[in-house]
TrEMBL record:
UniProt keyword Iron, yes or no: yes
Name the record gives this protein: Ferric uptake regulation protein
Domain of life, per lineage: Bacteria
Pfam families from the UniProt entry: FUR (PF01475)
Stated family: Belongs to the Fur family.
Gene3D superfamilies registered for this protein in UniProt: 3.30.1490.190, Winged helix-like DNA-binding domain superfamily/Winged helix DNA-binding domain
Matching PANTHER family: ZINC UPTAKE REGULATION PROTEIN
Length: 152
């Protein structure tokens, strides 16, 4: 299943890059578009294979540099448990934490942003004199579509 590409989102990140003074190269933009086109998390090598359809000369470093840039700008998230990447639902918020729901059956990923959960984690860390610099909250299970489609 391929999602419809949100051209307003592409325009938004182009504007954000211009404001930030960073370059959204054609390769970076194309990798972002490929990530956005799928509800599933994409690995670097899956992205490379897709990129090769429009740029046959593309090599792994091209994709890894694009991914590093997109992560740094907050436009995508890394799914740590599967070493793959998804679009950030609020890429206009340069730094935020989210909770990823990952379906082990169809590989779709849903991004949630629950401030009360983040506040709870931050407060618990503070009680122990710990300053959190990164949250990776991933929950694996079966999504509603796959659960509904199951025959009991």
């Amino acid at each position: 299943m391929v999602k419809n590409l949100d051209h307003k989102l592409i325009e938004q990140i182009e504007e954000m890059c211009a404001v930030r003074g960073v370059r959204l190269t054609p390769q970076r933009k194309r990798v972002f578009e490929l990530i956005c086109a799928s509800p599933k998390a994409s690995s670097a090598y899956e992205l490379l294979e897709q990129l090769k359809t429009s740029e046959p000369q593309a090599k792994p470093p091209t994709v890894y540099r694009a991914l590093d840039f997109l992560l740094e700008q907050g436009f995508i998230h890394r799914v740590e448990s599967t070493n793959s990447f998804i679009q950030c639902n609020s890429c206009n918020a340069h730094k935020h934490y989210s909770h990823l729901l990952i379906c082990d059956k169809c590989s779709n990923v849903i991004e949630l942003q629950e401030d009360s959960l983040i506040t709870l984690l931050t407060n618990n860390a503070k009680k122990h004199g710990f300053k959190i610099t990164n949250h990776v909250i991933e929950s694996h299970g079966i999504c509603q579509s796959c659960t509904t489609g199951q025959t009991e």
